[in-house]
Write a structure and sequence with these properties.
Blueprint (H helix, E strand, L loop, with lengths): L7 E4 L7 E4 L41 H13 L4 H9 L7 H10 L4 E6 L2 E2 L3 E2 L6 H11 L3 E5 L2 H4 L5 H7 L5 E4 L5 H9 L4 E5 L5 H13 L3 E6 L2 H8 L5 E5 L10 H8 L7 E5 L5 H10 L3 E4 L1 H4 L4 H9 L7 H5 L1
Parallel strand pairs: 3-6, 3-12, 6-7, 7-8, 8-9, 9-10, 10-11, 11-12
Antiparallel strand pairs: 1-2, 4-5
Helix pairs in contact: 2-7, 4-6, 4-13
Length: 330
Amino acid sequence: MLGSSSITTIVSPPDGTSTSLPCPPGPSVDGARPRCGLGGGVQDRSPAGDLGATRLQRVPTYLDGILARHRDRAAADARDLGLLVAEAEAVPAPRGLVRALRARRAQGALGVIAEIKRRSPSKGPLVPALDPAEAAADYAAGGATALSVLTDAEHFGARPDDLPRARAACELPVLRKDFTVSEADVCDARLMGADAVLLIAAALSDAELGRFMALARRLLLDVLVEVHEEAELERALGLGPDLIGVNQRDLATFEVDARRATRLAGLIPDEVVAVAESGIHGGLDAIRLADAGYDAVLVGESLVRADDRRAAVATLASVPATLRGSAARA
C-alpha cells in the first residue's frame, strides 16, 4: 500500500523547472488515492488496478503557475473556516444556475452562459476597460441564461467588485469563474454573491472535489465541474454532479479540439446538464455543440469583444437544443 507521500504531482514554475509536491492526503471518493493535477502527475494504473504499478507522466500546462499561486495563497489564508461557513450560510438564497439551465432546456433552446473577463493568459488584454454592469445588462437583454464572471485579478484582470456589480445589473444567476483550491474559496464565492462555483477536475484530487462539492451544496451553491477528458469525466460523475462543463481547450497545447466535446457529450447522463466551454465563436459553433447534445455553451472572448454584445448573445440563444443519449433515442 502506498503512503500518502508516495504519489506526487509535478508543478512547472515559469522558469520551466519541475518541482515534486505531495498529493493532498486523505482517501478519495472512489477509494483510490487522489489523482493530482493540473499539469501534474497523472496516475496510470495497471489493468488489475494495482496502485503499486502507478507511474507518473509529465503533462505541463499553461495553468501550472496560476494554480501554484492560488495554492500558495490558500496555504497562507489564516481565516477561521467555521466562521467563514457561518457567514456564507447567512447570505440570501442564490438564484439557481442549474434550475435556469434546466428551464431553458425544457423550452427546447440552447442555454447561454455569457462571460465577463478583461484579459486571458493566452490572449492577453481583451477589453481592459470592460464595465461588468454594462456587459451584464447587454447579455441579459440578448437572452443569456446566466453569467460567468472571472474573479482572478492577477491573471484575468478582475476587480473586487466585478461579480457583485454584474449580478446587481440583472436577474441572472452568476457563476464565479476562478481556481477553487480550498474550502475558503467556496465560502468566498457565496460571500461575494455568486450562485455557482467552478471546480476544475484536472486541478483537484478526488478528495478535494468531494469536500468542495459537499460544502458548496451545504451553502446552496450550484457546482460546475469542468473536465477535459474521459478520465476526468469518470471521476466527476462519481460525485453525482448536476452540472458538467467540457472544456474544448487542451491544457497542454491550449489548442481547441472540437472532437473532444463531441466525444464526451455522449458519455454525460441525460439528467446531468452538459455545458460546452472554450473556442465558441458564433452561431455555427453553437449549432455544432447543440447537435452533439450540449444543453448550454459558456462563451467569453467572442462576446466581450463583440461590437454588439446583445446581438451576439441573441444569435447563440436562438439555437435550438438537441436531446442527448437515451432521451434522443426514445
